Amino acid sequence: MPLFILCALTMGLLVLASLLLARKLRRLRQLRRRQQHIWETHNIFQLFDRAAPLPPPGGWAASTDLLGELVRVVAARQPRVVVELGSGLSTLVIAAALRRNRAGRLICVEADDQYAHSTRAQLHQHALDDWATGRSVPLQSIEFEGERRPWYDTSLLGDVDSIDLLFIDGPPTALRRDIRYPALPFFWNKLNAGAVVLLDDADRPAESAMAKSWQRRFPQALFEHLRFEKGALRVTSLARVPAPRAPSHSAASTA
Predict the structure, then answer these.
(1) 57 pLDDT more than 70
(2) Average pLDDT of span 71-83
(3) Burial readout 186-210 (b: 16 or more C-beta within 10 A, e: otherwise)
(4) pLDDT of the residue at 44
(5) Percentage, residues of the chain above pLDDT 90
(6) Is the pLDDT at 64 greater than 50, yes or no?
């Protein structure tokens, strides 16, 4: 058999083997994700007494792997003050995890009044009113780091302080892809030493760029990318060091 034919056959077999291996690895990763989903779902349901059905995870809501991470952080850190930007299934899970700790309080910031009302109703259905407070904070055009951008009305957030866990899952990105960027700079000096910040949807380009910008601005924090369904970023405040000086933020009505 000519040498070039033998080489071609060998290359063909190697390519076929690589494709089969890649397919097998892809199926193994899918199986592991399903196993993790089942495990996280089991852990989440352990927090509730089945008083009312839970909304489904995924889609706009936080994925089960991120919800599981929230449960673990609450259990390990025993936070006294938790702040959540955006609301939904994660609100119920955080509040239920605090109830299991028998300590702590969740402040849930929601820009949409109707969605905030729905979340408060679900908290009541699950008897979680004592562990979470829903706060309606409308979006406004604010001056932030030298440019105008939509974000929460900061005048309604001035009393929020001594945060142990900050979960960033809002505002919605319809108005601006990087609309969630101000969250860490605004709350940085309100975080306790050792506080944990979790950002959902970290695999999206805007969130990925935000993470790089935050990392440059806050080198004293630990940044970890979590390989979840939609990607997540975990930031740990290693010490309460004042944020670098930046232009002040002021709000003005968008009307």
Answers:
(1) no
(2) 96
(3) bbbebbbeebbbbbbbbbeebbeeb
(4) 73
(5) 60
(6) yes
In this prediction, residue 48 carries a pLDDT of 75
CA distances for 197 relative to 107, 182, 185, angstroms: 14, 13, 12
Task: Tell me if the domain spanning 47-252 has CATH number 1.10.10.10.
Answer: no
Task: Report pLDDT digits (tens) over 174-215.
Answer: 999 999 999 999 999 999 999 999 999 999 999 999 999 999
How many CB atoms are closer than 10 A to CB 214?
A: 21
Report residue 83: phi and psi, to 5°.
-120, 130
Closest by alpha carbon to 237, among 195, 198, 184, 188? 195
Burial (Cβ within 10 Å: 0-12, 13-18, ≥19) of residue 113: exposed
Gap between the Cα atoms of 172 and 208, Å rounded:
16
The span from the CA of 65 to the CA of 40, in Å, is 6
Nearest CA to 34 out of 72, 63, 69, 13 is that of 63
Please give the pLDDT value at position 247: 46
DSSP run (H or E) holding 144: strand 139-144
Are the beta carbons of 64 and 57 closer than 8 angstroms? yes
Enumerate the domain spans of the chain.
47-252
* Single-letter amino acid code for the residue at 187: F
Torsions phi, psi for 234 (to 5 deg): -115, 125
- Does pTM surpass 0.85? no
145 token code pair: 């780091």
